[in-house]
Write a sequence for this structure.
């Protein structure tokens, strides 16, 4: 409210020119009001330098895009095996299942598989099946994969799609969904008239993207870097998809350069605005949901509120709290112990896929994923030593008071599609998402799936993305 | 104004969350306060009772243990810190490298084992698990005086070793320039799940369970009446001990006393206490240490309680890597010794650690966690105590009538004014603002702490206060 007060109001202290001044003032207000109806407030792009030391004054940045291949060595594998062999485990409490965290009896089974059956060389070839590249932006090397459709039917436009991963994921999460988007017909998907070329970068500090050396690298800096990346690849307009941190980054991208974003598709919505109105909506929603805009499905997924939201959030946000305050401490041991790293990361793949997996002795991991693909993701963090820098992202983004952060006050006006998965950590009803996303084109209640949507339910997610993009193209 | 609205929102959320934390739906059936003699050992409780034997215990090490440690230190992988981050992101890995280098090349674990063994140590099985403790008797007693038994309980991430500097001041005060009016025999147990005490195998081992075990220990040692001293987890356990066995605890001395159930009056005193200190019973020093509250209270807690949050929810996950990487373990523990000794140390590249402690002592404490492999079980204690919320358990709502002495150190994580403490500790005999020192009082300022304990015991003994309960 206060932010909307027109600032072009002029005033003069001399009575003699009061009337013309007032006319000017009113006229100015009118012009401002008319203009503000059409221009949309955006986040400033700004600039940044993340390499070590000071930014070099002379010379332009090397803008070349260099092909990249993931490699491994005997030394790397032997070092890993040695650490796995010497791992020390603490026995779990009787009957603990996954309630105290990752059950160490099941962890020993995972480590045995990792040591004896997992073939990292083979997985490296799997990772290299899509073309990888690196390019230097703002002083750091940005890694990404770029997959074009091998066959484009006559007359079809290929939509560029940037897909951004989160924590503790990586570009690898998208390996199952990419073929569904670049070659839908070949996979039985009939949303037929949409074909994509997919770009999946690694967030700086994650995987094969270089970590920033300077403090302050947040989602806005990431958004800017990814815009520069797409620009460098020659794209003027593109679609964005993301969950977890990816959701926040692409939201910032849409707030920064809305004219470049054709559409925004999210499988997670950060509900950032807390506050009195929200609390009232929550309290009333239990009894008169229709009054506050909640649907039946919303009610089912949101209530009992304290149980499903606050209690669950407190239970599951310990990692967030420590990573947002002491990332270097939290990550130190994990960068030195692959077993510790696996326990930490895989616990999320268990609990965030289905909350009931906490009651199972094996955390339900192998009911939705294969150990091979789970460990490939863990290996990406291990071989790049990126766990600490990945955790720092939490500290840089979660300031003292999240509601004061810039992006919460700037709305998102680009066409938005939301896929709400039932086992997501917290459900965001459409009416709450509208606070930020002013232009929701599709909002789908997905039938199954959790936080790692692209990894767990690639077909469902791909269908929803295509459904959304088709609608946007028709607009 | 905008700032005003924002502040109001923050307070409303704060307020809302307090109510959530207080009225947390209890997941377990209501905890009965009077403890049962439970069984924490493996499998089912056998029909035979615990034997009451005490075994001599000596810390030992082997070449294999040392070479395994050195191998891990050699292969440690570090991540460069961000430029100019000091200790703001946690333990600075540049400084950590120096510590690891000292650990490999100069630290002598065999010598430290002998240091640990200079005090007699024992083990005895209570409620199914082996309890380790140090028992130090005074070297000499003046004519007609008897040694007063004093139970001292450590916390996390500390150990019985924290007391090695203060023990001589209490068992032999005369040789250290202190009055020998009261001489103690000191018992420092290891909390089950910490150091050389066996970890419980069953769920729900909380501070009341630990208190019942230590009560049993003191009875077994033949002490019908004793003093109890503690900080950190030790504060909680000793408080519970005073609640379950008030007729046996002559006096309770604490260097930490947190308020667990905040009520409306607390909130009011936070909002107005700066302007009307007298109304809420705040002294000048209280105001100095507590306000501005957002900065010194709320934000400080939020910034420093990440470890407690994750340990209270996923101890097995976070402890796993720390039990496998000594460097990770050191980083995790040393961060606390830095920040909880003085918050300003976060602005230093070396975390200020060697200003107050020496690396030998710090690494000895870490080695206790490493060689016993107890990091995970030590973290579980947080979950067992906090999983139902703060201020929801019965013992947190009950008061303490035993004569209490509180030593309030300036750099402690949270300051509790006497006005708040006396709501719980109804019989506060002494409350002193210490001139310096932080969380690890016994290790950092043993003389100050010993003096405060001695004057407190002096007061209790003089008035024979324990008889008046």
């Amino acid at each position: 409210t206060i932010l909307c007060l027109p600032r072009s109001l002029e005033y003069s202290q001399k009575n003699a020119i009061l009337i013309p001044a007032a006319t000017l003032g009113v006229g100015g207000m009118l012009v401002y009001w008319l203009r503000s109806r059409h221009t949309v407030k955006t986040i400033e792009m700004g600039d940044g330098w993340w390499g070590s030391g000071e930014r070099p004054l002379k010379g332009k940045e090397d803008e070349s895009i260099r092909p990249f291949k993931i490699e491994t060595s005997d030394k790397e594998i032997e070092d890993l095996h040695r650490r796995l062999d010497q791992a020390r485990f603490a026995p779990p409490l009787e009957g603990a299942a996954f309630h105290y965290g990752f059950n160490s009896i099941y962890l020993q089974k995972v480590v045995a598989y990792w040591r004896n059956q997992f073939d990292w060389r083979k997985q490296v070839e799997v990772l290299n099946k899509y073309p990888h590249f690196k390019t230097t932006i703002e002083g750091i090397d940005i890694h990404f994969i770029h997959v074009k459709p091998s066959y484009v039917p006559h007359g079809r436009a290929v939509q560029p799609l940037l897909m951004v991963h989160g924590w503790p994921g990586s570009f690898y999460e998208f390996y199952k969904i990419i073929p569904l988007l670049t070659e839908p017909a070949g996979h039985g998907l009939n949303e037929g008239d949409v074909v994509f070329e997919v770009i999946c970068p690694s967030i700086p500090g994650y995987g094969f993207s270089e970590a920033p050396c300077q403090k302050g690298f947040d989602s806005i800096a990431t958004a800017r870097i990814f815009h520069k990346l797409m620009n460098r690849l020659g794209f003027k307009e593109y679609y964005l998809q993301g969950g977890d941190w990816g959701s926040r980054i692409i939201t910032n991208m849409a707030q920064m350069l809305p004219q470049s974003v054709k559409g925004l598709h999210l499988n997670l919505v950060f509900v950032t605005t807390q506050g009195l109105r929200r609390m009232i909506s929550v309290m009333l929603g239990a009894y008169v949901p229709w009054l506050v805009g909640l649907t039946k499905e919303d009610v089912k997924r949101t209530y009992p509120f304290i149980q499903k939201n606050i209690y669950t959030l407190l239970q599951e946000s310990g990692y967030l709290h420590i990573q947002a305050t002491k990332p270097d401490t939290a990550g130190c041991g994990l960068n030195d112990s692959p077993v510790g790293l696996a326990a930490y990361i895989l616990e999320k793949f268990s609990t965030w896929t289905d909350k009931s997996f906490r009651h199972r002795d094996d955390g339900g991991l192998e009911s939705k994923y294969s150990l091979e693909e789970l460990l490939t993701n863990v290996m990406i963090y291990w071989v790049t030593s990126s766990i600490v820098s990945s955790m720092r992202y939490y500290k840089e983004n979660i300031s003292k008071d999240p509601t004061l952060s810039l992006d919460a006050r700037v709305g998102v006006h680009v066409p938005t599609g939301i896929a709400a998965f039932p086992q997501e950590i917290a459900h965001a009803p459409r009416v709450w998402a509208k606070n930020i996303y002013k232009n929701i084109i599709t909002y789908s209640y997905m039938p199954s799936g959790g936080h790692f949507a692209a990894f767990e339910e690639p077909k469902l997610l791909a269908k929803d993305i295509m459904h959304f993009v088709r609608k946007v193209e028709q607009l | 104004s905008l700032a005003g609205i924002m502040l109001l929102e923050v307070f409303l959320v704060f307020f809302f969350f307090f109510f959530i934390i207080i009225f947390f739906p209890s997941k377990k059936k209501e905890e009965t306060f009077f403890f049962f003699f439970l069984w924490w050992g493996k499998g089912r409780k056998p029909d035979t009772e615990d034997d009451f034997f005490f075994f001599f215990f000596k810390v030992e090490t082997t070449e294999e243990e040392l070479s395994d440690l050195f191998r891990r230190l050699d292969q440690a992988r570090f991540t460069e810190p961000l430029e100019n981050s000091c200790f703001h992101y946690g333990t600075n890995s540049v400084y950590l490298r120096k510590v690891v280098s000292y650990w490999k090349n100069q630290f002598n674990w065999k010598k430290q084992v002998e240091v640990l063994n200079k005090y007699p140590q024992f083990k005895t099985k209570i409620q199914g698990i082996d309890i380790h403790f140090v028992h130090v008797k005074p070297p000499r007693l003046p004519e007609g005086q008897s040694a007063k038994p004093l139970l001292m309980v450590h916390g996390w991430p500390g150990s019985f070793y924290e007391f090695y500097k203060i023990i001589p001041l209490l068992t032999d005060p005369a040789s250290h320039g202190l009055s020998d009016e009261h001489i103690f025999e000191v018992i420092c147990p290891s909390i089950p799940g910490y150091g050389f005490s066996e970890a419980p195998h069953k769920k729900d081992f909380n501070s009341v369970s630990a208190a019942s075990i230590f009560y049993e220990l003191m009875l077994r040692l033949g002490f019908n009446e004793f003093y109890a001293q503690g900080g950190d987890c030790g504060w909680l356990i000793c408080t519970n001990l005073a609640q379950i066995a008030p007729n046996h605890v002559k006096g309770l001395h604490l260097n930490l006393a947190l308020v667990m159930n905040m009520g409306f009056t607390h909130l009011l005193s936070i909002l107005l206490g700066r302007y009307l200190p007298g109304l809420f019973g705040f002294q000048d020093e209280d105001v100095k240490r507590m306000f501005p509250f957002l900065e010194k209270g709320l934000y400080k807690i939020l910034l420093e309680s990440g470890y407690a949050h994750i340990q209270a929810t996923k101890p097995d996950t976070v402890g796993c890597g720390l039990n496998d990487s000594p460097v990770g373990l050191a980083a995790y523990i040393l961060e606390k010794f830095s920040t909880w000794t003085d918050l300003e140390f976060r602005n230093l590249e070396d975390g200020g650690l060697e200003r107050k402690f020496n690396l030998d002592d710090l690494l000895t404490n870490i080695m206790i966690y490493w060689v016993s492999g107890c990091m995970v079980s030590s973290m579980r204690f947080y979950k067992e105590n906090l999983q139902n919320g703060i201020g929801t358990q019965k013992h947190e709502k009950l008061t303490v009538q035993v004569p209490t002495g509180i030593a309030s150190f300036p750099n402690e994580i949270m300051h509790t004014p006497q006005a708040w403490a006396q709501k719980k500790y109804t019989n506060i005999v002494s409350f002193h603002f210490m001139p310096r020192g932080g969380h690890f009082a016994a290790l950092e300022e043993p003389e100050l702490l010993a003096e405060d304990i001695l004057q407190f015991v002096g007061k209790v003994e003089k008035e024979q206060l324990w008889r008046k309960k």
Q: What stands out?
A: The two ends of chain B are 54 Å apart (CA to CA). Residues 22-33 of chain B have pLDDT under 50 and may be disordered.
